[in-house]
Amino acid sequence: MNTPASPLTGISSMATRHLLAELAERCVAQGGPRVVFESVGGVDAARRVAAGEHFDLVVLASDAIDTLLAAGQVRGPRLDLVRSAMVVAVPAGAPHPPLHDEAALRDAVAAAPSIGYSTGPSGKHLLALVARWGLQDSLAGRLVLAPPGVPVATLVASGQAAMGFQQLPEFAGQPGIEVVGELPAGAAQTTVFSAALGLQAAPAAVVALAHFMHPATAALKRHHGLSAAG
User: Fold this and answer.
1) Is 88 exposed, middle or buried (0-12, 13-18, 19+ CB in 10 A)?
2) Tens-digit pLDDT profile for the chain (230 aa)?
3) Residues 179, 181, 187, 192: what is their CA dihedral angle, to the nearest 10 degrees?
4) Do 79 and 90 belong to one domain?
5) What is the CATH number of the domain that holds 67?
6) Are residues 79 and 93 in the same domain?
7) Does residue 115 sit in the same domain as residue 63?
């Protein structure tokens, strides 16, 4: 009796978790290797990889992958998997703030009683915008950082945040919220999520990546609010 091969292991940030789960299922259905991903906050994922925890595949924002590559903590080449737009969400039924230009967005942020954000790329971008707009002091106490493992959507749906900033896939399909739209020109941000191999990755990891990067996956990526990066 043959013993089933152990699955490949992967780690990713939260924004790509649903997509990667479906890509992994499709990979197996097409005769490829099985991959089991653990999806956590991007900062925590990068820290664990840097600390030497073993994963066959690592999928994070491209700047995080670049940092790990430069430190020799993952193997290249970096493969850009998907692009994700940053959006604004509000509690279901709440008025939608205008997002037609950067000034309107700034005014909406300045007036919001509470603003939810994460530690990932979208959170870094929001804090950079707040600094650029000179709102650090006036927003002190109104910026609500999502705890590890808690989606920004949860803060918005529960009313802990009157506005939430996050990658579109993090908000898609979440109950109790409404996505207002993408950030306007001048303030917009698109994050590229990329893949790399772990230092002791099994050879089958290369096969799995080929399945994930195949042009035939483009429709599935769009279904999850993402676009192919290639």
Assistant:
1) buried
2) 333 478 999 999 888 999 999 999 999 999 999 999 999 888 899 999 999 999 999 999 999 999 999 999 999 999 999 999 999 999 999 999 999 999 999 999 999 999 999 988 889 999 999 999 999 999 999 999 998 778 899 999 999 999 999 989 889 889 999 999 999 999 999 999 999 999 999 999 999 999 999 999 999 999 888 998 86
3) 80
4) no
5) 3.40.190.10
6) no
7) no
**What domain count does the chain have?**
2
DSSP 94: S
In the chain, DSSP assigns E strands to 8-13, 35-40, 57-61, 75-91, 115-117, 143-145, 163-167, 177-182, 190-197, 227-228
- Note the pTM of the prediction, 2 decimals: 0.84
Domain containing 19 equals 8-83+192-228
Residues in the chain: 230
